[in-house]
Amino acid sequence: MSDVMTRNVVNGIDLDAVGEVVEAIGRDPGQALVRFSVATRWTGQTGSVTRVRDIELGGERIARDFEIRADEPEQLLGQNSAPNPQELLMAAANACMTVGYVAGAAMHGIALERLEIEMTGQLDLRGFLGLDASIPPGYDRIDYVVRIAGNGTPAQFDEIHRTVMATSPNYFNLARPIQMNGRLAVG
């Protein structure tokens, strides 16, 4: 008999581990609370670097150490050295939804062959520049297409798609107003 326990893994997702997490959260809802934190520093012109800080999950600190750079294209006064904030916003939404599609497919026993999300948005710079108060500084709408393939049925993929729209944190964050509590510290 092997010392290695056989795990139920689909699309790289350990379904036994998912079950254990769900069970633990069911027993203690405090285990479900997670706090994310980042700090962004201006690097000159339109550039910035964001440092991803440790997260707190269920009261436990988990070390994180990543940098995310942002810049604007030259036509928007930047140096074109990194994605701009709008591209990072879309990338964050796509990455979050990707987790939902992959995990959802795994939970259905569907092995994925392909998953791509293409997102686009158009905004009017007159709102950002304060040239016309009637024009919002952000998006009125964002369009996206999910291309998914695997051994699932169209009905299963549709169910996964609806679940992602109902449970993806970043889909939720973009699909409705969110309260922003800012304060200014000068000096």
Number of helices: 5
> In terms of per-residue confidence, which ranges show pLDDT below 50 for 5 or more consecutive residues?
none
The shape, in one word, is globular
Fraction in beta strands:
25-35%
What is the gyration radius calculated from CA atoms? 20 Å
Number of strands: 10
Report the helical percentage.
Answer: 25-40%
| Spatial strand order of the main sheet | 3-6-7
Largest sheet: 3 strands, antiparallel
Please state the structural category. Answer: alpha+beta
Order of helices and strands: EEHEEEEEEHEHEHH
Mean pLDDT, as a whole number?
95
Distance from N terminus to C terminus (CA atoms, Å) equals 66 Å
Report on this model:
- The N and C termini lie far apart (66 Å).
- Helix 2 crosses helix 4 (154-167) and helix 2 packs across helix 5 (169-175).
- With 187 residues, the protein is of the alpha+beta class.
- Helix content is 33%, strand content 26%.
- It has a 3-stranded antiparallel sheet, with no helix packed on it. The chain has a 3-stranded antiparallel sheet with strand order 4-5-8, with no helix packed on it.
